[in-house]
């Protein structure tokens, strides 16, 4: 079964906590601190696997977690780092933040291996906090918290050329005729429910990759039918071959069909209409006099003035295919650009410290500052030492907490309370 979209949960590893301990050895009655550092948490890493062409595996496993770092130990022992988790995906997979829809990574081109979530940093043991004035620190740094994210995986096929057209106009037959692809072909609407890729080999020329984009219907850009599931696969293509039933076997108007499909492409992504198009007027074997038929003439009169060439073809007999393919090759040579790779828009590492905090003034005129990160900072900062207090002041300034206090009207000598600790404010 072909699956081109999946929602999963990923989490990096938490950093191990630093350890608090003191040397306890014979003849060393007052040993110094020897608490070791915690290990780093594991990363969440996505890797392109060339053997995959579907996101099927993610239908069964939806939760992926890296290993946590181990806490530090006594005698300066460093905690073991958490194991990374490697997630294999097909080339062309776009990773998005589920909530915002922003792109985290596009596993295409040179992007074969991407660290999506970094593991938490290990906390420092109390051996790191010994100073001349604080020789026996009884605190250690906790490990950095893990990052977690719900992500959406979208597989967008990587092809030079995309085939579009209404269902049952002969796209699968065309693909099987000009490439090594062997799609299932039957005379039913919506027979093709997943993209098929094939390589076109031209005599004395460079080949190219072509994709049969499943049948698009009116309203597809708004999600009608399998709209978005179909349309996403054409976003990377450089040239569009628009296949129509020139013979009107099912009573359809080929000119109206072309405009209808182009309207859906433009509604989904206006940039798609900037790409070169070629019209393949298929099923001329069903016309009485083929090349000179009025239907072909009408299509040419409508679209060739717009710069869109029309090629009468028969996907069944192979008539007219070579001129079409060489024209497409010429268009690709003129474009000569790398496949579309979506730019990164979302950076999970920037979210790690965006933890809420509050700065308020209570009824007694005391300024109260609270928040989880502030509480952790107080837990491992020695405010009795000059170095520790300077470190804490820098933290308040960099996180704009001092700016918020001033915005509330704090004056020199006013009281600030943070989790039971009270300070007098001075600039």
From TrEMBL:
EC number: 3.6.5.-
Binding site for Mg(2+): 172, 192
Obg domain sequence ranges: 1-158
GO molecular function: GTP binding; GTPase activity; magnesium ion binding
Signal peptide: none
Entry keywords, A to Z: Cytoplasm, GTP-binding, Hydrolase, Magnesium, Metal-binding, Nucleotide-binding
Matching SUPFAM superfamilies: Obg GTP-binding protein C-terminal domain, Obg GTP-binding protein N-terminal domain, P-loop containing nucleoside triphosphate hydrolases
Keyword Metal-binding included in the entry's annotation: yes
Pfam families: DUF1967, GTP1_OBG, MMR_HSR1
Family: Belongs to the TRAFAC class OBG-HflX-like GTPase superfamily. OBG GTPase family.
Subunit structure: Monomer.
Protein name, as recorded: GTPase Obg
Upper classification of the organism: Bacteria, Bacillati, Bacillota, Clostridia, Lachnospirales
